[in-house]
Amino acid sequence: MEISISGAKVYGYIGPDIPLLGRFPLTETLIVSWIVMLAITLLCVFLTHNMKVEKISKRQALAEWLVEMADKFVIGNMGSKFSYMVPFVAALFATSLFSNLIGLLGVRSPTADLNTEAAWAIVVFIMITAQKIKAGGFGGYLLGFTKPIPLLTPFNVLSELSTPISMACRHFGNILSGLVINGLIYAALAGAGSALFGLIPGAVGNVLSTIPILDVGIPAILSFYFDWFTGVMQAYIFCMLTTMYIANAAEG
Amino acid sequence: MGSFVLLSEAAQIEEAGLVSIDTWTIIAMICNLFIQMLLIKKFLFKRVRDVLDKRRELAEEELRKARVSRDEAEKLRTEYENNMEQAREKATQIIDLAQKNATAKSDEIIREASQEAVAMKARAEADIALERRKAVNEVKNEIGSMAMEIAGKVIEREVSEQDHAKLIDEFIEQVGT
């Protein structure tokens, strides 16, 4: 039996061959992420259409609650001077959450591709650096690496670079592990079912052993942890770290 | 970039490595994140904040209106109280005036009554005096004629009344005084 767990599919290449970058690959990650974006945007439009000032609907109440929660989360972690960060953090959380959960529909999560998390981590890293430079000036930012003693400079640089890498890899690893374990469980249960029902003699055993009966039900329980729990947790952790790092950077 | 594939299917569709880095995808995903941010901002945050702002404005407007109407009610109450005070003062004034008028009137009546009483007394006294004079005159006449009779009898002849009236009058006058 072969178990195949691979990266995102590449449906094709578009555009000219640019040196160093190559041609633009139209990957599964990209297409599913567009579906995710569309879903989030449609949900926003659905929640906020026909909003009223008085006698609000449940839909509007949910929209207002979401905005309030986003405000509370960002301002609670970063202070009110970072209120302009609310849409960014909300977009990060929504994209991460929807990307993680869209795996339940059978498509490959965009977050099961390291490129997605790398993109987000790069953005967050640039924001952290920008806040540090804003707080202490460019010289102050560079000098910060030599503290508390100049000997630690290489380690400080490493630790600085490890921030985005660890953020990206934490999220990616959790989602990928869910994907891998789910794949293994499905395959193992199919194998076990096939072996078990193969014991039944005659045609009945032959037919039953080709149907992965054990795959019904049991993976759903594991999926609750690996898809739902991890999916929500990783989105939350990524946003929490983003806000914390940026707020800390601004404090200098 | 290094990549590893657990086991790749022999399919027509190319597959990227399980853990692989592709610069184009990263760039695209960064763009996606920011586009998503703008979409969420436009379709969720802006709309909800607009409604929240409108609601706050409405609440403030209601509060302002309530304050205005409370002020108005306060003004009305003050005005009403003033009016009541004025009315009460006016009533007191009217009562005072009525009392004063009544007192004046009663005084007037008493005064007039006593005046009248005095006048009546004076008239009565005048009447009495007149009556007395009349009575005196009558008595005088009576006495005159009696005296004439007596005198006639005494001298046995008729005394001419006209001749001696003057004489008698003088006599009575002397008696009267």
Walkthrough of the structure:
The complex is a heterodimer of chains A (252) and B (177). Chain A is mostly helical. Chain A is built from seven helices and two strands. Chain A has a two-stranded antiparallel sheet with strand order 1-2. In chain A, a hairpin with a 3-residue loop joins strand 1 and strand 2. The longest helix of chain A is centred in the last third of the chain and has 46 residues. The radius of gyration of chain A is 23 Å and the shape is globular. The model of chain A has no long low-confidence stretch (mean pLDDT 89). With 177 residues, chain B is mostly helical. Helices cover 84% and strands 1% of the residues of chain B. Chain B has two helices and one strand; from the N terminus they run E-H-H. In chain B, helix 1 crosses helix 2. The longest helix of chain B has 133 residues. Chain B is rod-shaped. Chains A and B meet through strand 1, strand 2, helix 1, helix 2 and helix 3 of A and strand 1 and helix 1 of B. Strand 1 of chain A pairs antiparallel with strand 1 of chain B.
Short description:
The complex is a heterodimer of chains A (252) and B (177). With 252 residues, chain A is mainly alpha-helical. Chain A has seven helices and two strands; from the N terminus they run ββααααααα.
